[in-house]
Amino acid sequence: MDQGSLARILKQVSGGEDEIQQLQKALLDYLDENTETDASLVFSRKFYVAQWFRDTTMETEKAIKSQKDEDSSEGTHHAKDVETTGQIMHRAESRKTFLRSIIKTAPSQFSTLKMNSDTVDYEDACLIVRYLASMRPFAQSFDIYLTQ
């Protein structure tokens, strides 16, 4: 991954969200900008929002399950993990709130959400997609699957 380009995109994207959320916003804005030239981008935009919402829900469920498993097996040795689980829950809720605001936005209001049309071009959008895809569980465990 081209970390320099990702850092440049993150600098251009305003917002106090986490890195993933900023990249998601940049990609959604790029897709929104180009829906007039390619109608399939409307579907792509909806697909990404739905997939990210699902991923956030799965991450939350996994954190809750791991916390319950540790509660039953280790007792009082998990104070640090509970704090981490709380952070995961907080981050997941902020991402869900962000995605809900995107879902509730009517297509006619997309233009008011746009940042700057020069922020992300096609190559940057491809880089963002590759980076966000690399954060998915299957991509992270691909080497393990190949080894097995």
TrEMBL record:
<dbReference type="GO" id="GO:0010468">
    <property type="term" value="P:regulation of gene expression"/>
</dbReference>
<dbReference type="GO" id="GO:0140588">
    <property type="term" value="P:chromatin looping"/>
</dbReference>
<dbReference type="GO" id="GO:0034087">
    <property type="term" value="P:establishment of mitotic sister chromatid cohesion"/>
</dbReference>
<protein>
    <submittedName>
        <fullName>NIPBL protein</fullName>
    </submittedName>
</protein>
<dbReference type="InterPro" id="IPR033031">
    <property type="entry name" value="Scc2/Nipped-B"/>
</dbReference>
<dbReference type="GO" id="GO:0090694">
    <property type="term" value="C:Scc2-Scc4 cohesin loading complex"/>
</dbReference>
<dbReference type="GO" id="GO:0071169">
    <property type="term" value="P:establishment of protein localization to chromatin"/>
</dbReference>
<dbReference type="GO" id="GO:0061775">
    <property type="term" value="F:cohesin loader activity"/>
</dbReference>
<dbReference type="GO" id="GO:0007420">
    <property type="term" value="P:brain development"/>
</dbReference>
<dbReference type="GO" id="GO:0048703">
    <property type="term" value="P:embryonic viscerocranium morphogenesis"/>
</dbReference>
<feature type="region of interest" description="Disordered">
    <location>
        <begin position="61"/>
        <end position="87"/>
    </location>
</feature>
<feature type="compositionally biased region" description="Basic and acidic residues">
    <location>
        <begin position="61"/>
        <end position="83"/>
    </location>
</feature>
<dbReference type="GO" id="GO:0003007">
    <property type="term" value="P:heart morphogenesis"/>
</dbReference>
<dbReference type="GO" id="GO:0048565">
    <property type="term" value="P:digestive tract development"/>
</dbReference>
<dbReference type="GO" id="GO:1990414">
    <property type="term" value="P:replication-born double-strand break repair via sister chromatid exchange"/>
</dbReference>
<dbReference type="GO" id="GO:0003682">
    <property type="term" value="F:chromatin binding"/>
</dbReference>
